[in-house]
């Protein structure tokens, strides 16, 4: 039997907030759920990591000097659990099988992260949402996504963003910004193109895990990228 495609998609917490800029917008949850459903229907195994920036960001929380960075980061990890539970509800609402696994034990709310169990869930066609970051402060959810993608043997990690890919300069500021279709890990690191933080890129590089950057709000784009090898995106490899 042909090996199934397995991917890990990282959504930012901010994306869940929609126009509100804060909290969780149900219509965004539903939209993402449908996009994930299309992947499952195409027989793709899907892991998900969601950030927590729509609720709290560790770095920002610690900027006032009252909350220490470590505590701020733990607060951020808890925010990702809230988002994971919301996403689980949205996916289950349309009939998908979902398991949330947390890097920090919160057993009343969800399973703990157990690598071998995560693999079994994926093999059974369940979406696995990896919550609470890596369980450690000073690591981003981009690093979590890369780490989990490597652990579960994903074909690549997809960073689902609000832009079409990686540009040579900020597309929101410069009209002549050009999208780069393929970028090497080294130039992503050296040229300070903030595709992901350096830790995440270095981990991907060490493990030859491609990073795909794409626009999550283009309907059908995820499916096009994963199943047909097309779509609008940039690839760091
Ligand atoms: P199989 O082993 O393939 O049957 O997978 P399963 O996930 O259905 O089995 P299990 O009996 O482990 O889990 C049943 C339900 O309980 C699932 O929704 C799990 O996510 C949930 N569950 C399992 N372990 C925990 C836990 O430690 N805490 C919480 N809150 N839920 C758990």
Automatic annotation (TrEMBL):
Annotated binding of ATP, by residue: 10-13, 53, 57, 161, 167, 170
Cellular localisation: Cytoplasm
PANTHER family: URIDYLATE KINASE, URIDYLATE KINASE PUMPKIN, CHLOROPLASTIC
Catalysed reactions, as listed in the record: UMP + ATP = UDP + ADP
Pathway(s) of this molecule: Pyrimidine metabolism; CTP biosynthesis via de novo pathway; UDP from UMP (UMPK route): step 1/1
Self-association and partners: Homohexamer.
Free-text function comment from the UniProt entry: Catalyzes the reversible phosphorylation of UMP to UDP.
Keywords in alphabetical order: Allosteric enzyme, ATP-binding, Cytoplasm, Kinase, Nucleotide-binding, Pyrimidine biosynthesis, Transferase
A cellular-component GO term for this protein: cytosol
One example of a Gene Ontology biological process annotation: 'de novo' CTP biosynthetic process
Annotated protein name in UniProt: Uridylate kinase
Pfam families: AA_kinase
EC number: 2.7.4.22
Keyword Transferase belongs to the record: yes
Ways its activity is controlled: Allosterically activated by GTP. Inhibited by UTP.
UniProt gene name: pyrH
Domain spans labelled Aspartate/glutamate/uridylate kinase: 5-215
Family matches, as Gene3D superfamilies: Acetylglutamate kinase-like
Family: Belongs to the UMP kinase family.
NCBIfam families in the cross-refs: pyrH_bact (TIGR02075)
């Amino acid at each position: 039997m042909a090996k199934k495609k397995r991917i890990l998609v990282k959504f930012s917490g901010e994306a869940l907030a929609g126009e509100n800029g804060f909290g969780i917008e149900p219509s965004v949850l539903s939209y993402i759920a449908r996009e994930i459903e299309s992947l499952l229907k195409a027989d793709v195994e899907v892991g998900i990591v969601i950030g927590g920036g729509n609720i709290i960001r560790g770095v920002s929380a610690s900027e006032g000097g009252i909350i220490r960075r470590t505590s701020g980061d733990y607060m951020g990890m808890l925010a990702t659990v809230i988002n994971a539970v919301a996403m689980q509800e949205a996916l289950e609402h349309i009939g998908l099988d979902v398991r949330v696994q947390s890097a920090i034990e919160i057993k009343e709310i969800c399973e703990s992260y157990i690598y071998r169990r995560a693999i079994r869930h994926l093999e059974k066609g369940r979406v696995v949402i990896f919550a609470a970051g890596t369980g450690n402060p000073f690591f981003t959810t981009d690093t979590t996504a890369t780490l989990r993608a490597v652990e579960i043997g994903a074909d690549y990690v997809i960073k689902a963003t609000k832009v079409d890919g990686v540009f040579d300069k900020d597309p929101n500021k410069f009209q002549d910004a050009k999208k780069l279709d393929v970028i090497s890990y080294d130039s992503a690191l050296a040229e300070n193109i903030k595709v992901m933080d350096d830790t995440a890129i270095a981990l991907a590089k060490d493990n030859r895990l491609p990073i795909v950057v794409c626009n999550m709000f283009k309907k059908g784009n995820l499916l096009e990228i994963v199943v047909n090898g097309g779509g609008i995106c940039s690839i760091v490899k």
